[in-house]
Design brief:
Layout lengths: L2 H13 L2 H8 L3 H15 L4 E2 L6 E2 L1 H27 L3 E6 L1 H6 L1 H11 L4 E6 L2 H9 L5 E5 L7 E15 L6 E2 L9 E4 L4 H12 L7 E4 L2 H9 L5 E4 L4 H5 L4 E5 L4 E9 L6 H12 L12
Parallel strand pairs: 3-4, 3-5, 7-11, 8-9
Antiparallel strand pairs: 1-2, 5-12, 6-10, 6-11, 6-12
Helix pairs in contact: 1-2, 1-3, 1-4, 6-11
């Protein structure tokens, strides 16, 4: 039996409506109707009497609905059991900035709540980590905001204003328009920082034409140190290098900020370890953290 076909029939029968069922499953009504017909064809039965006056299940349809209800209830129970079985191993995804500067303190606080909890940390671009959450490879993640699918729950946790770094002599504070025509070194596609920068320049009608793409933040900073261009970073990621004189830091008076979200699947709402992670992040004091400068 094809579970997709059974789910289509079950959802239609539950709502007594193709329209409401299509809305719940996020498919078109024609597609949903085809799925139900495939189930009927597989077993050579009619499950739903199709007429415009009223929705009605056949006798076979009533029997199928009773069993389908039990099947999907068991699947929900299985999902809960699997979630609980995975409670001692929390898979967390994030970007290198967050993993390097914020995540260790958060995990330390989480360890106090759940001493037996084990962590697996994955790093990558925001879009990559988001896909890992959607595919179930990460239980929870902290990433720069990107477009999210409907099954994702997201909570804004902080905004990081970006500072400009360069080897060239410049004022300590400038407006973004003063950087027009500058050679920029940007993160590769898939980076939320890159998306925020491109959108920020576009909203201000400032050209962003000359730039190098690079996947490695340390390599970007090294290229700035060599005078190959300028780049944008959050304060906590450049403060030490600026103090050592590797490059100059310029504050943007009309700043572009990257919004960071904590994300997880709707199916993970019942997970104790995910709830604990969310709670620790909600109570985390960013203003007293070395990342101060967060707006």
């Amino acid at each position: 039996m094809n579970c997709k076909h059974l789910l289509a029939f079950y959802t239609v029968a539950k709502h007594k409506s193709f329209t409401l069922a299509a809305r719940e499953l996020n498919v078109s009504q024609p597609v949903l109707s085809i799925e139900v017909k495939k189930l009927e064809k597989t077993y050579n039965v009619i499950l739903i009497r199709r007429n415009k006056k009223a929705f009605e299940l056949t006798e076979e349809g009533k029997i199928a609905f009773t069993y389908a209800k039990q099947v999907f209830a068991l699947l929900d129970d299985l999902k809960d059991v699997l979630i609980q079985g995975d409670e001692q191993n929390l898979k967390i995804g994030s970007t290198p900035y967050i993993v390097n500067y914020i995540m260790p303190d958060v995990l330390n606080g989480l360890k106090e709540c759940q001493p037996d909890l084990k962590f697996q940390i994955y790093t990558g671009l925001s879009t990559e980590i988001m896909e890992m959450v959607v595919n179930g490879d990460c239980h929870v993640a902290v990433i720069g905001r990107v477009p999210y699918p409907d099954e994702i729950i997201y909570r804004e946790i902080m905004k990081l204003p970006l500072y400009f770094i360069t080897r060239e002599a410049m004022n300590e504070k400038v407006f973004l328009r003063e950087l027009a025509g500058f050679s920029f070194i940007l993160p590769e596609k898939g980076s939320a920082t890159r998306d925020h920068l491109i959108r920020g320049f576009k909203e201000r009608n400032i050209p962003l034409e000359q730039f190098i793409e690079c996947e490695s933040p340390p390599a970007i900073k090294h290229m700035v140190h060599l005078g190959m261009g300028g780049a944008f970073f959050p304060l906590f990621d450049i403060r030490d290098d600026v103090a050592r004189g590797k490059y100059k830091m310029v504050e943007i008076l009309d700043p572009i900020s990257v919004t960071y979200d904590l994300i997880y699947l709707k199916d993970k709402r019942k997970s104790r370890s995910v709830r604990s992670f969310v709670e620790v992040f909600k109570n985390f004091d960013f203003h007293s953290h070395p990342t101060r400068g967060i707006s």
